[in-house]
């Protein structure tokens, strides 16, 4: 199996006020194989979210390198990073981050809209994705009219809009009850079986049963 | 994202924050409406001020007077009350003088020279009559400025008939609009002390008085009034026109010798030019020949430049209002970006480029400006028509009451004025949105996503 994500000597140091520096990543190296399902675990402040943000091109490291597929993420400019995120990464957030004034369908179609996909095509694809996550009778609902579990399923559908090889999920079950959380994890498992490489950040030990590998982090290091 | 897709996206974003957009664009509406209305008001004033010049043919006229010595610099309105000014010309025109020191007379030769100039259509001579001219009808009398003209029809001089006709022959006279109402009975204070009879068709007497070494003598000439001019608003209202033959007889009597236009010249020439664009050029040529010229054109230029600066001032006042509105847009956009920081982070995570974000927010600001501009245009069009309807009716009533025929509108709004305001508010909106939008595009996605 080839590695789709290669992280080498990654450091991230935040400059806080009063010349205090906080080390979020103290030199992390790891590889994640294509088609695998990994969970980064650890207590708050262990650097697991920072690692995911840098891998997803949402944040820049202080030093070190990250490669995702053929992309040398750490050396991309802003424009290239935007295209990288479009093509390679689907994000799922703890707080769903749906746009409240848009319907489920419009939320799922949003990444396609940014890519310039025509209205008919993107709405058709968004509908199919919502169908896949079991929300085809909720397509015209606004997020506030739906439960947390349903909202996160919309977010999963949105992450799949561009059919990215890598899905990054930051505490995807953190705001959900157990049943909904299990549903989401099952959904991610199904996606993983379809070939998507999935990396989740969690501190819920019960999630580990769904994943192939656990990356345990503490104080900016992989243990 | 294609441009159309971008516009749709912006439209949707504006739609979901209606309340705020309406309030902000209200400021733009007031600003752009005030610019349009103030400029239109100045435009209306300018129109009224220049209407008398554009209504008649005087724009193509040059009045030429004899050239005087170098010390003579300028005079207003064609000289003192005794000298007759330009028939039909501007009441206060700019006077150009040459620096020649000898007097240059307006002889028949000069008339031929001027006639030969390029663009000159016609040259007519005027002879004002020195000495007191008093118009007498029954017991009423009044002073007039008497001018002899060498045209058979006064319309050739750009004058228009109020009643009767303008054709002049020996023994006939055409009076200015205000002549008869200025006639009175001397040493009498009854209710009929001023003349109320229409003089058209009546026989009148002209009494010419001259002072000489032999004392005061008076000559009386009889005329028939064949026409009364329409009101022009200048001194031609107080003038009387007679044929050149009659004028020559009177002048000969006043001077005590036969008048000879080849040696004594005429008082003035009225030069008519083919096109108003050529008036100033021809006037320059005649000035270079050593004669004084007056044109309504140069007066008009002065008036127009005055109104241009007035427009600048008024436009500036309106622009300040719009500037305040621009600050409102900038404020609204800054607030919107703070509120939607998380959304910006999300858009970036979903693959929006910095350029996408920049265009979205500048577009929203431009949209607010556009909405305000459209509203401002509608307001100013509505208010403008209202002002014209109400104020214009009032003005026309006033004008009718005072005997003038000026029909004026208060507001003059050329079609490009609202369009200009529309474009201006839109551009101003985009500029106001520029800095907030730049702030939005530079947000770090990871920080923006964490923003609560």
Described by strand count, sense and barrel closure, the largest sheet of chain B is: 13 strands, mixed
Assembly state of the chains shown: heterodimer
Radius of gyration of chain B: 33 Å
Tally of individual helices of chain B: 10
Features:
heterodimer; A: 223 residues; alpha/beta; Rossmann fold; 6-stranded mixed β-sheet; 4-stranded antiparallel β-sheet; 32% helix; B: 452 residues; alpha+beta; 2 domains; 13-stranded mixed β-sheet; 47% helix; elongated
Question: What's the layout of helices and strands?
Answer:
The complex is a heterodimer of chains A (223) and B (452).
Chain A: E1 3-15, E2 21-33, E3 37-41, H1 48-55, E4 63-68, E5 71-72, H2 78-88, E6 89-92, H3 104-114, H4 119-132, H5 148-159, E7 166-170, H6 178-193, E8 197-202, E9 213-218, E10 221-222
Parallel strand pairs in A: 3-8, 3-9, 6-7, 7-8
Antiparallel strand pairs in A: 1-2, 1-4, 4-5, 9-10
Helix pairs in contact in A: 3-4, 3-5, 4-5, 5-6
Chain B: H1 3-15, H2 18-55, E1 61-65, E2 94-96, H3 108-115, E3 120-128, E4 132-137, E5 140-143, E6 145-149, E7 161-164, E8 172-175, E9 203-212, E10 215-229, E11 239-243, H4 244-255, E12 268-273, H5 279-288, E13 292-295, H6 296-339, H7 341-349, H8 354-401, H9 416-441, H10 445-450
Parallel strand pairs in B: 6-11, 8-10
Antiparallel strand pairs in B: 1-12, 1-13, 2-13, 3-6, 3-12, 4-5, 4-9, 7-10, 8-11, 9-10
């Amino acid at each position: 199996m080839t590695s789709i994500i290669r992280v080498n000597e990654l450091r991230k140091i935040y400059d806080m006020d009063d010349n205090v520096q906080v080390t979020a990543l103290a030199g992390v190296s790891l590889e994640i194989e294509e088609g695998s399902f990994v969970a980064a675990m650890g207590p708050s402040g262990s650097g697991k979210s920072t690692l995911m943000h840098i891998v997803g091109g949402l944040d820049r490291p202080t030093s070190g390198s990250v490669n995702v597929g053929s992309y040398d993420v750490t050396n991309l400019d802003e424009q290239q990073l935007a295209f990288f995120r479009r093509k390679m990464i689907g994000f799922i957030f703890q707080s769903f981050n749906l746009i409240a004034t848009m319907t489920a369908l419009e939320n799922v179609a949003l990444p396609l809209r940014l890519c310039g996909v025509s209205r008919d095509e993107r709405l058709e694809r968004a509908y199919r994705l919502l169908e896949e996550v079991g929300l085809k009778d909720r397509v015209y609902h606004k997020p506030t009219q739906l439960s947390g579990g349903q909202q996160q399923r919309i977010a999963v559908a949105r992450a799949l809009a561009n059919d990215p090889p890598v899905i990054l999920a930051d505490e995807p079950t953190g705001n959900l009850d157990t049943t909904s959380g299990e549903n989401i994890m099952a959904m991610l498992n199904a996606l993983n079986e379809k070939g998507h490489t999935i990396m989740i950040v969690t501190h819920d030990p019960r999630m580990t049963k769904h994943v192939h590998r656990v990356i345990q982090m503490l104080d900016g290091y992989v243990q | 994202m294609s441009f159309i897709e971008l516009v749709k996206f912006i439209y949707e974003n504006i739609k979901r924050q209606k309340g705020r957009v309406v309030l902000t664009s209200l400021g733009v509406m007031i600003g752009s409406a005030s610019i349009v209305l103030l400029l239109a008001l100045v435009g209306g004033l300018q129109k009224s001020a220049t209407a008398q010049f554009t209504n008649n043919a005087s724009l193509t006229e040059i009045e030429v007077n004899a050239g005087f010595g170098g010390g003579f610099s300028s005079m207003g309105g064609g000289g003192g009350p005794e000298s007759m000014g330009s028939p039909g010309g501007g009441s206060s025109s700019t006077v150009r003088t040459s620096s020649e020191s000898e007097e240059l007379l307006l002889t028949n030769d000069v008339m031929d020279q001027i006639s030969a100039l390029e663009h000159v259509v016609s040259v007519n001579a005027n002879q004002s009559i020195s000495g007191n001219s008093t118009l007498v009808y029954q017991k009423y009398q009044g002073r007039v400025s008497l001018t002899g003209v060498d045209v058979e029809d006064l319309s050739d001089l750009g004058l228009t008939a109020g009643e009767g006709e303008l054709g002049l022959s020996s023994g006939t006279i055409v009076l200015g609009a205000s002549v008869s109402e200025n006639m009175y009975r001397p040493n009498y204070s009854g209710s009929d002390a001023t003349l109320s009879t229409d003089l058209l068709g009546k026989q009148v007497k002209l009494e010419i008085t001259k002072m000489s070494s032999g004392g005061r003598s008076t000559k009386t000439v009889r005329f028939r009034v064949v026409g009364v001019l329409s009101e022009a608003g200048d001194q031609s209202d107080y003038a009387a026109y007679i044929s050149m033959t009659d004028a020559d007889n009177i002048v000969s009597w006043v001077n005590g010798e036969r008048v000879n236009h080849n040696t004594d010249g005429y008082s003035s020439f009225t030069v008519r030019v083919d096109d108003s664009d050529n008036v100033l050029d021809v006037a320059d040529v005649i000035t270079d020949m050593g004669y004084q010229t007056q044109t309504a054109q140069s007066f008009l230029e002065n008036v127009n430049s005055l109104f241009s600066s007035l427009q600048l001032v008024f436009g500036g006042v309106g622009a300040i209002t719009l500037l305040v509105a621009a600050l409102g847009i900038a404020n609204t956009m800054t607030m919107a970006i703070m509120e939607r920081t998380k959304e910006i982070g999300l858009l970036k995570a979903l693959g929006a480029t910095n350029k996408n974000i920049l265009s979205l927010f500048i577009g929203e600001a431009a949209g607010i400006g556009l909405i305000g501009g459209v509203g401002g245009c509608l307001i100013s069009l509505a208010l403008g028509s209202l002002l014209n309807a109400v104020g214009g009716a009032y003005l026309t009533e006033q004008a009718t009451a005072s005997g003038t025929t000026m029909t004026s509108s208060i507001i003059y709004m050329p079609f490009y004025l609202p369009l200009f305001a529309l474009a201006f508010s839109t551009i101003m909106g985009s500029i106001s949105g520029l800095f907030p939008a730049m702030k939005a595009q530079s947000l770090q996605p990871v920080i923006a996503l964490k923003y609560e």
